[in-house]
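Thread: Modeling a multi-component assembly for a lab meeting

Hi all, long-time lurker, first post. My supervisor asked me to bring a structural picture of a complex we are working on to next week's group meeting, and I have zero experience with this. I have the sequence lines for every component (520 residues in total). Could someone generate the structure of the whole assembly? Inputs are pasted exactly as I received them:
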Amino acid sequence: MVRFTAVGLRYPSPDGQEGPEALADLTFTLPEGSFTWLLGASGAGKSSLLRLMHLALLPTRGELEVLGVRVDAARRSALPGLRRRIGVVFQDFRLLPYLSAFDNVALPLRLAGRSEASLRPDVTEMLRWVGLQGKELSLPQQLSGGEQQRIAIARAVVTRPALLVADEPTGNLDSHQARRLLALLTQMNRLGTTVVVATHSEDLVAQFPAQALLLEDGKVIHHG
Amino acid sequence: MADARNRSGMTERRTRYARDPLGLKRALSDRLLPGLVAAMALLAALALAGSRGAAALKERWQQGAAAAVTVQLPPEQAGRMDDALALLRAMPGVASAEAVDSARMRELLRPWLGEVPALPLPSVLELRLENLNIDPAPIGRQLAEAVPGAELEAHGIWVARLAALARSVQGVALAVLALVVGVAVAVVAVATRAGLASRRQAIEILHDLGATQGDIAGRFARRIGLLAAGGALAGAALAVPTLGAMASLAAPLSGGVVQPWSALPWLDLLMLPPVAGAIGWATAQFSVRRWLKRLP
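Re: Modeling a multi-component assembly
Sure thing. I ran the full set together rather than chain by chain. Output:
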């Protein structure tokens, strides 16, 4: 479950002072096992909201609960374990350029302490699923934008996370790959993963109807 | 066969990358930091050897000269040399008393007085006291009562001055050592910051994927500790011939005896790599953990 209660977020301004609120008074709950579209124009605050959900940022006010943990009140040492239960597909992929496709996908498993022998079948299977079999040793810069995005997706889901957040995950995919990705996300959702996907694609939302959270100027203007 | 080789190569590459997901082998050069640490380890070895040498000299001077006392009998009392020796040997606190023969006296005075066989010279005795705490003044008084004109000269003031000089040299050497350690910490901190700057995005990615501060700081600390230890090993190796050469130069201070290789401060040299590694490890841990505080 993800629960926001009067959450606000300010980024520091360049002079070190507090800037204006990028997100203000966010109050909503995403039930465990739900699928939610996060919608809104560019600059509405979708990426900031997702960064709060995967704990890359902490709220400057309000209460935030993620997977049963009060993030705003939790000790710092409790957060890494919580992050490992969250899968993230970043808008800019955020792959490590000196790691192969295999090693990028295997990274969350290695951070979780999985042995080399046990992680290999999972990583290989995930790479096969996203259509990158045979490119295990390719470096990100040797792959197209779509292929890099598929590696980012494989890395996000390889740990079977309890919460999956994706920021424009289909931005660099063709329509076939986009449908395959959404099929994967809905499949994971059926298995119990809470999924939140930020997108601009109305077509995608129409093809996979689910509850939506609409943001405008850092505030939720529609939820349902 | 080729497949097996490929699989083996893939496994090796994966293992290598798994050990270094931050790419620190590229971010933290294996030349600059070890080179700087090697230079500092060499300086540290010289400072340590200087400190040990000064301590040994101080000890030697105190052991040798402090307990030595010279007794002088006027020429007219030369015939009472045996009485004086017997008296002194019977006194408590006197370890030994020996006469300096006239031939040795003339040899010692030749640089100043030349060949002057007719010149009357005082008779001289050398005493060794049992320890440094014995006051030679009562011995001198008792001797003067028995042998009028006898004078006793203790070397304490010279020993005190020499010991103070040796202590100063030792203090300077230790100050240099402290300075070297301080510079080493600063160099490691700068290298760590450079590594953090070049791997900022990778650190943020690992952090977002659930890496702990200890995990990230530990990877930096292991790499930097290893580089520092390697550099110090090279510095210690360079210090061996340098110290050997310096021991030859310092031979006159130790009675003209060139110290053997076994007299080099081997334990200090052996300790340099682990100590440098520990300094690198601790400095990197501190620097990285401090930097990571900016992340949630």
